[in-house]
Amino acid sequence: MAEPTAPSTARMIDFWLGGSDHFPVDVAAAGAFEQAYGPCAPVFRSLRAFLGRAVRHIADAGVDSFLVFGAGVPTCGNVHEVVPEATVLYTDVDPVAVEVGRRLLAGHERVGYALADATDVGGVDPALWARYLPGWGERPVGLVFLGLAAFLDDDTLARTLDGLYEAVAPGSRLAVDFDTEELAGYPQALAMMGPAFRMRAPESFPRLLGRWQPTADGIVPVARWRPSGTPEAVPDAFHGAVAVKPVG
Ligand SMILES: C[S@@+](CC[C@H](N)C(=O)[O-])C[C@H]1O[C@@H](n2cnc3c(N)ncnc32)[C@H](O)[C@@H]1O
């Protein structure tokens, strides 16, 4: 694979999580970001732990297939590692993420990786859909929409989440997060995220979730979503929730 010349946020996260699927350009960008913001590894470890708790919670509700959007690098406690009993289809719009992901997942019978824009997954190969998301629209699925909201404007995000709500079977669940206004206090770091990066106030998010109903755990800092012990002491950079399409 040709070495990428531009960094990717997903591979920077892999670096911060202690993974091995990133390139020098990602390490350089991660270092520059930390100069402007501060240590990131604890923040992303906490965010990945939220993924683990949310996905396990969804599986414990009886869901055994997952569709992951903007998946990035599928390691370091990612969905198929949390629920090895489930089938998982990872998707990302970045061809490098797909190539890296397919290499990492070679030999995993229950896990696939497809190129797809989260705002329009209609182009995904129907054979992959049938294999990893059997009974789509009739059986509940888990949707994992993490690390992605910041890259979508409000209208696109709300339309995408509502389209998914319409498409999935009742009983389906959505794990979702968004960037808070934490980076507003770090203008240099914020500038590195580019002009399209979106931070959100927590009170703005229920409207974007639309018909999806958050569980009683609410929309909270990710470290405080069903913590398994004392929540990690990290900045409230991300809030998250699990939301449900109710049955009946
Ligand atoms: C910040 S990374 C998050 C990766 C991973 N979900 C995680 O939480 O560690 C954002 C990922 O979203 C992908 N992405 C951005 N816009 C997207 C879109 N419209 N559709 C699908 N993926 C997208 C990027 O390529 C990148 O891999």
**Between the first and last Cα atoms, what is the distance in angstroms?**
49 Å
Tally of separate domains: 1
Oligomer: single chain
Question: Number of DSSP helices?
Answer: 9
- Cα-based radius of gyration, to the nearest Å: 17 Å
Profile the largest sheet.
8 strands, mixed
CATH class label: Alpha Beta
Estimated structural class: alpha/beta
What is the overall pLDDT average?
97
Name the CATH superfamily classification.
Vaccinia Virus protein VP39
The best one-word shape is globular
Low-confidence stretches: none
Report the β-strand fraction as a percent range: 5-15%
What does this molecule look like?
The chain has helices spanning 9-16, 24-37, 41-60, 79-82, 95-105, 126-132, 154-167, 187-192, 205-209, and strands spanning 65-68, 87-92, 111-115, 142-145, 173-179, 213-214, 220-221, 238-244. It has 248 residues and is of the alpha/beta class. It has one domain: 3-Layer(aba) Sandwich (Rossmann fold). Strands 1, 2, 3, 4, 5, 6, 7 and 8 form an 8-stranded mixed beta sheet that branches. Helix 7 (154-167) links the parallel strand 4 (142-145) and strand 5. Helix 1 (9-16) packs across helix 2. It starts with 8 loop residues before the first helix and ends with a strand. The protein binds S-adenosylmethionine. S-adenosylmethionine is lined by residues 9-10, 13, 69-72, 92-94, 97, 117-119, 146-148, 151.
